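S.,

Sequence below, as promised.
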Amino acid sequence: MNKILNILKEKKSIPLDKFINIALYDKKFGYYMKKNPLGKDGDFITSPLISNLFGEMIAIWCVAFWENLRKPKKIFIVELGAGDGTLCKDLLNTFKKFNNFYKSVNIKLLEKSENLKKIQKNKINNKKVKWIEKIDKLNNGPIIFICNEFFDSLPIKQIYKNKNLFYEKYVTLSNKKKISFLYKKANNKLIKDIKKLNLNSKGNTIEYPLKSIEYLEIISKKINKYGGGILIFDYGYTTSKNKNTLQSVKKHKYINIFSNPGNADITSHINYELFLNVAKSKNLETKKIITQSEFLQKMGIIERANILSKKMSFKEKAYMFYRLKKLLDNNEMGTLFKVMFAQNKRTKFSLGF
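The prediction came back faster than expected:
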């Protein structure tokens, strides 16, 4: 909190995306840099931590993609924001069952947080896994990019539209020395950018995920050059209506975004229509957005659970299906989480979609 207060005292105000970036990614102060936010004792839980069947389904999907590419001698899997390393570990455990694929696969993890990197290294401990600083450095393929709850944690800009006027949301200190929002007239470049992306269509609060778009553009270049695709799991919406989706979570509960910056998660929902349009504009082949429940069921997660359950005690079986319900149920993560897939145009792959 002190770092943000000091910056605001000095600069008077900063754009919302800069505030989020400091709160989450500042090397000393940032939320992701200081602690492991995941799990029961953390602030939120992700699909890989709920059930290892989530990772197993993605692993089988990756093997099928590789077969569709006619089994290249090398294939690269890049996980963006690997959390505590659970998904990567589950992928490896399944990959080992497919000998030829396992010989071909190389995994790269993109992780900003040195703290999480240490946790990942302790958990994974496999020579096939390397850590990278930037996607730009990737110079081989084909590449499968896997993003589970990666884009929701990237900074966004918010613009308020009133008739034909646009105002950018800033963060400032009030007279009572409390952090609050402030609106400033948006500059021409920003207005031009959001109009170009058709973000000004419906609703008053426009969310502009500038950082996400930058990542999608770099990833698209790599997929176009080396082949492969990107698979995204995240909560989000598919309608074109603009809305304020900014939220902060601490100890599995929603809190005010300003109540604990640097010690709480800050996220926003993915505008999947925008993501699809960006991917298409970069010459990628896209599939329709489906729910996490649809994808996992098409991949055979229930059949797999039924097979495993035959060797389980009643208690183990009940626990596995309880966790599976969290991934699939409409009132849990089943429909809130969506899945997007975009691939190189030379590739015709549709498993799970």
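The CA atoms of residues 47 and 146 lie 13 Å apart.

Coffee later?
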